Give the backbone structure.
Amino acid sequence: MSFGQVQAKGPVTASEPVALAELPREAQQTEQLIRAGGPFPFVKDGVTFGNRERLLPRRARGFYREYTVPTPGARNRGARRIVCGGTQARQPEICYYSEDHYASFRRIAP
């Protein structure tokens, strides 16, 4: 399945999807790493995303995984993330981009 193939059901803070090509270069590189299965630069990349904010559609625990999008100049992981959902990490059903550490999300369209 490709990014965005599954329609989001539930609250997502941005109504319009964003094309991967419109995201920062670092987000595009992170997406390539997701599809390649890594290697990821941060230990927490690929861990379960709990959706505690409840901004993404409700799914069973373990459906979503989070990945760091490096922020140039940041001394830590920064605030940018890609969260993908699906049963296979390398072939996500749907992905979202957050530039503000989960305060908002935009669905990534193919």
Observations:
- The two ends are 10 Å apart (CA to CA).
- The longest helix spans residues 25-36.
